[in-house]
Amino acid sequence: MERVTLADLNRRSVLFGTGALVLAFTLKPALAQTKSPGDETQNFQAVAQPAPELPGSLKTNPNLESWLRVEASGKATIFTGKAELGQGIKTALLQIAAEELKIPFERLSLVGPDTVLSPNEGYTAGSHSIQDSGTAIRHAAAQAREILLAEAGRRLSVPVEQLRAADGAITGPGGEKLGYGELVSDHLIEGRAQPTSKLTAPDQFVEMGKPRRRIDIPAKVTGGAAYIQDMRPDGMLHGRIVRPPSPGARLQAVDLSQAETMPGVVKVIRDGNFLAVIADKEWQAIKAMRALSAAAQWQETATLPDMADLPAVLMAMPADDGIVADKRGPVSAARSEEATFTRPYQIHGSIGPSCGLAQLVDGLTTVWTHTQGVYPDQKAIAQMLGVPIEKVRCIHVEGSGCYGHNGADDAGADAALLAQVVPGRPVRVQWMREQEHAWEPFSPGMVTKVRAGLDDKGNVVDWNYELWSNGHNSRPGTAGALLGAQHIAKAFPLDAQKLQITPEGNGDRNSNPLYAFPSRHVVWHFLADAPIRVSALRGLGAYMNVFSIENFMDDLASKAGADPVEYRLRHLDDQRARDVVERAARNFGWKAGQKAPEDHGFGFAFARYKNLAAYCAVAMEVKVEKETGRVRLIRATSAVDAGEVVNPDGVANQVQGGIIQAASWTLYEAATFDRTRITSVDWSTYPIMRFDALPQAVDVDIIPRPGTPFLGAGECGQGPGGAAVANAITNAIGRRIYDLPLTREKVRAAAQLRA
Amino acid sequence: MVALTVNGKTHQVDVDPDTPLLYVLRGELELNAAKYGCGLGQCGACTVLVDGEPVFSCVTPVLVLEGRKVTTVEGLGTLEAPGPLQQAFIEEQAAQCGYCIAGMMMRAQALLQRNAAATDEEIKAHMEPNLCRCGTHMRIMAAIKRAGKLMQTASAASTGRTG
C-alpha cells in the first residue's frame, strides 16, 4: 500500500502552492487527439471544468504537476484520481505513462486517489478510468517528455528534432545523453497543459497494447499488505457497528452496561439510532457488538414493498417520465410483438465486507477507505462531522472488489464517526457479512416493456420501449448518502433523486438499442421513491436493458424464422458493431440453422456499452438438466472492441469476469425481504455462481483499433453476458423466461411446460 | 495462552480460547493472507490448512488447534521466492480484486499436495466451497492446473536427484 511521509506531503504542498508556469513554447500539434466520448457523466458532475478544451480529466485538473512529477533520481511519480478496484488500472495507467514519457515502467510509481495528493476525478465508475485518467496521463506524460526534450536541446544547443527520448533519458546526435533526473529542476514540468500533444504513434508502442503483468498481484498472492483490511497502524482499535434490524427501525431503549464491562471494550457509543463498540482486539469488538445488539430494543416499521408483487408495485409507483429517444417515422407495421421483463433487487456482494479506518489528530480526521470517490466522500464526511472540508482527508486503499457503490463509503463514514470518540487512536471498522448483505445499497428492481412493429419479413420498423426503475446512483452527494449519517441523532436526510437523461444513461443506460430501427420511442418511468436503499451496480440499467432488448431480439428472430445472429446483423449499420458480432459468431462456430446437442442450447447477445464505450458480443453454450432445471455453462466466446487497448490481458480479465458475473446475476441472484426486514443476509440466502456451473472456456477476442480513442471496457460484458445465457437456455428448453433470475425452479417449470 | 504452530513456527498467543483462528492469524500474528469474508464458513476467503486439510479459519476456535499444524499462504513461499501456487497465480494473472485468492490457494494446495494431476472436474468439485465475486474462476482453474504441473515437475526433478 502507498505510504506517504510528512516530508512528501510538505514537498507536494509547496509544489501545489507555486504559481503556474506558463510554458514558453508551443507544443507540436498532436499526432492523434484521444478524445474519448462521454465526458459529461456522473464522474464530472461534481467537479468544475476550468479547461473544457483539454482531453480527459485534464479538463478538471489542467496542470501538468497534478498528474506527474519527475524526480531528480530519474524516477517519476504519477498521480491519479481513479481507484484500483481490482480492474487493473494501476498497471494500465503506468503503462500509458511509461509509453508517453519514454521511461522504463519500473521507474514509475503511482499515487492516489487521495484528497491531498491526487487530482479530483470524481468517481471511479462507468468504465471511465482509462478514458478519463488514462487520457489525461497520456497527454501530460507526452507534454512532459516534450518539455524534457526542449530542456535537453537548450542545454546541448542541439535542435530538438535531433534529440531522442527513450529509457528515461534524452540522447543527442553525437550520442550525448542526459537522464531525466539531470534535466528536471523544480518548476520545469508545471503549468497548464496544452490542448494537443505529440502522442506516440501506435506502431511505435513499446508498452501500450502489450500485455503486462499487474503490479498488485504479487502482494495479493503472497500475503503482502494489499488491502485496507491489512492496515495495522500503531494503537489501532477495532470498531463494530450494531445496525438496526430493519431499514425502518428506531432504537427504543438500550442497556450499554453489559457491553461496556466486557474485556477489551474501550467505548460503547449510542448516538440516535447509531450504536457501536470500540475494543482493543477484533474478536472482543465482535463479542461486544453481539452483546450490545442483544441489549437493544427497536421499534420496527414495515417499510418494504411486497416482494411477491414487485413488478406491479414498481409500475404503480408515481413516476416522472424521461424521454430517452423519440424518433418517430411513418410506420406501416404488418404486425407487432411485445414482451415484459422483470428483475429483482440484486446486491454487489463483495467477498470482503466493507471496511474503513479513521484517525482524528489535531482536528484533522484522516479516513482510509476503499471508496470509489475520495473527494465526494471527503465533502460528505465533513458535512456529517460538522467540520470544514479541509478537516477531513480521504485516502484510497484497496478493498475487496466493489462492482459499484457498495458499503465502502458508509464504512469510511462509520470509522470517521468512531474516530471522533477516541482522538488520536486509529479505529478500524469492519462490517459483518450480514451487514454488507442487508445494508449495502442494492441495484434496483426493474420492469421493462417492449413492443416492436414488424414488416412482412419480420424486421423491426417501429420500436417502443419503456422501463420502470429508481435512479441507479445515490452516491455522496451530501452526508445524507452515508448510512451512519442517516442513523445518528442529528440525522441527515437522503438526497432527493432527480430524473436526468444523459448520453451515458443511468437506469436508462443502453435502453436505446444500437440497432438501426427506423422509428423508435424509449421512455424511462423514473421512480423517485426508493422503498429500498439503491445505488450503482456495475453497468447500472445496462444489464437489464440489454437483457430485455437482446432476449426480445431473439424472440423476434425466432418469429421471423431467422437466425439470431443474421437477424441482428440485418438491423446493424455500425461497422464496428457488425465486426464484433461477426467475430464472436465465427469464433464460436455459429452457423445458421445449427442445432445444439440434446439438452444444450446456443445463445447470442450484443451491446455497445452505453452506446458509446466498448462493443461486446457474446456467444454462449449451456447445458440444461430438464428434470432439475439446473443450468451449466459450457463455453462462451466473446469479441470486444475497446478502441485503443492499453493492457490486453487486463481487458480480457475484465470481460471474462464480467461474463461470469453477469451469468451469476442471471441464474441465481435476488435480494429477498419481507415487509419489514431484508432476509437475504448471507451466501445461503443469496446464492451466487460456484465452480460447478463454470464453463470450460470463456474466450475474449479483442479487435485491435490502434490510434483510436480508448473505449471503456470494464463493464461491457455485463449486458451481453447475461442475455447470452438466457438466450442459450431458451434455445435449450424451447421457452423463454421473462422474470429474472432464471432459477432452477423456473427453468424446470418452463422445460416441463414445453415437454 | 494458547500454543499455535503456524507455517512451522510455534507462537504463544494470549487470546480468549474461543477466538476464531482467523483473528489470531490476522490480529496477533499479523499475517495478511487469510481474509474475513463471512464469519460463517460460507465463502472460503479465510481458508487455511490444518494438518494439511482445508478449514474455515473464521469458524475454528484456536483452542482446538493446539498441537496441530496451521499453514497459510505465507507458508507457501514469499514475494522473492514464490511457491508453485503463487508462481502459477502470478503467471496466469489469476486475480481481479484478489480478495478471495488466498483462500482459493489454500484450498487448492490441499488438493494438489494429494494429487498434483487433478482433472478439471476434480478441481471444480474440490473448489466448490470457495466463492469468487469478480468472476475470475476460469483463471483460478488455469492457475491451479499450472501449479499442479509445476509441482509435478519439481517432484520429478527431486526424485531424479535422490533416485
Notes on the protein architecture:
- The complex is a heterodimer of chains A (755) and B (163).
- Chain A is of the alpha+beta class and 755 residues long.
- Chain A has 3 domains: 215 residues, Aldehyde Oxidoreductase, domain 4; 166 residues, 2-Layer Sandwich (Aldehyde Oxidoreductase, domain 4); 220 residues, 2-Layer Sandwich (Aldehyde Oxidoreductase, domain 4).
- In chain A, 28% of the residues lie in helices and 20% in strands.
- In chain A, the strands form 6 sheets. Chain A has a 7-stranded mixed sheet with strand order 9-10-7-17-14-15-16, sandwiched between helices. Chain A has a 5-stranded mixed sheet with strand order 12-20-19-18-13.
- In chain A, helix 10 runs parallel beside helix 11, helix 14 runs parallel beside helix 18 and helix 17 crosses helix 18.
- Chain B folds into 2 domains: 71 residues, Beta-grasp domain (Ubiquitin-like (UB roll)); 74 residues, [2Fe-2S]-binding domain (DNA polymerase, domain 1).
- The chains are: A alpha+beta (755), B alpha+beta (163).
Show the helix and strand layout.
The complex is a heterodimer of chains A (755) and B (163).
Chain A: H1 6-17, H2 42-45, E1 68-70, E2 76-79, H3 89-101, E3 108-111, H4 129-156, E4 164-166, E5 169-171, E6 177-179, H5 180-183, H6 217-220, E7 237-242, E8 250-254, H7 257-260, E9 265-271, E10 274-279, H8 282-294, E11 296-299, H9 310-316, E12 319-327, E13 335-343, E14 355-361, E15 364-369, H10 374-385, E16 392-396, H11 408-421, E17 427-430, H12 433-439, E18 446-454, E19 460-470, H13 483-487, E20 520-527, H14 542-559, H15 564-570, H16 575-588, E21 600-608, E22 615-625, E23 630-641, H17 648-668, E24 697-702, H18 718-733, H19 744-754
Parallel strand pairs in A: 2-3, 7-17, 15-16, 19-20, 23-24
Antiparallel strand pairs in A: 1-2, 4-5, 5-6, 7-10, 8-11, 9-10, 12-20, 13-18, 14-15, 14-17, 18-19, 21-22, 22-23
Helix pairs in contact in A: 3-4, 10-11, 14-18, 17-18
Chain B: E1 2-6, E2 9-13, H1 21-28, E3 47-50, E4 53-56, E5 69-71, H2 84-91, H3 101-112, H4 120-127, H5 137-162
Helix pairs in contact in B: 2-5, 3-5
